[in-house]
């Protein structure tokens, strides 16, 4: 995905993994009704995200999350960024992850009609470029689910 504006991608995340993280976040919101991960670590070979849930998910629920993420990836959805004034962005996406002192224009990243969120990271142009998403492990303690995941070709 290319943006030729002052708000072009700044974080040097591995684009396929970072885009998969967006899809995972939206899938977790849809399946569990939780918030997007605010603490994560995105790397080329493996990544992790934390979610706050009232109880531990079952293996079947996590298998369903993995299945749904891969279903979205397989749709070949376009991924695009759009720069807009903060007031307009607030109408389209949850901006609570932005720093309180963030002002001015906001870059929203859209994954088809599946997800939209503010982001300064790098992304693929189409979800078909991501590969297969795999939850490699997880643990749950004190209301926090930590999902570790990787991408397979």
Q: Layout of helices and strands, plus pairs?
A:
Layout: H1 15-32, E1 40-41, E2 47-52, H2 59-74, E3 79-85, H3 86-92, E4 105-111, E5 115-118, E6 132-141, E7 144-152
Antiparallel strand pairs: 1-2, 2-7, 3-4, 4-5, 6-7
Helix pairs in contact: 1-2
- Residues in helices, as a percent range: 25-40%
- What is the number of beta strands? 7
Distance between the termini: 20 Å
Helix/strand class:
alpha+beta
Given as residue ranges, the uncertain stretches (5+ residues, pLDDT < 50) are: 1-9
Output the helix-strand order. HEEHEHEEEE
- Biggest sheet layout: 4 strands, antiparallel
Q: Overall mean pLDDT score?
A: 91
Q: How would you describe the shape?
A: globular
Measured by DSSP, the beta-strand proportion falls in 25-35%
Structure description:
- The strands form two sheets. The protein has a four-stranded antiparallel beta sheet with strand order 1-2-7-6.
- Helix 1 crosses helix 2.
- It is globular, with a radius of gyration of 15 Å.
- It has three helices and seven strands; from the N terminus they run αββαβαββββ.
- Strand 6 and strand 7 form a beta hairpin.
- The longest helix has 18 residues.
- The protein is an alpha+beta fold.
């Amino acid at each position: 995905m290319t943006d030729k504006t002052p708000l072009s991608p700044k974080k040097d995340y591995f684009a396929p993994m970072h885009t998969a993280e967006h899809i995972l976040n939206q899938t977790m919101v849809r399946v569990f009704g939780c918030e997007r991960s605010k603490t994560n670590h995105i790397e080329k070979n493996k990544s992790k995200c934390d979610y706050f849930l009232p109880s531990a998910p079952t293996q079947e629920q996590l298998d369903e999350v993995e299945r749904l993420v891969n279903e979205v990836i397989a749709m070949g959805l376009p991924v695009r960024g759009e720069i807009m004034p903060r007031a307009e962005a607030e109408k389209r996406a949850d901006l609570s992850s932005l720093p309180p002192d963030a002002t001015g224009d906001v870059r929203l990243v859209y994954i088809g009609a599946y997800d939209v969120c503010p982001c300064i990271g790098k992304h693929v142009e189409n979800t078909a470029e991501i590969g297969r998403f795999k939850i490699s492990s997880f643990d749950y303690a004190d209301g926090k689910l930590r999902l570790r995941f990787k991408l397979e070709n």
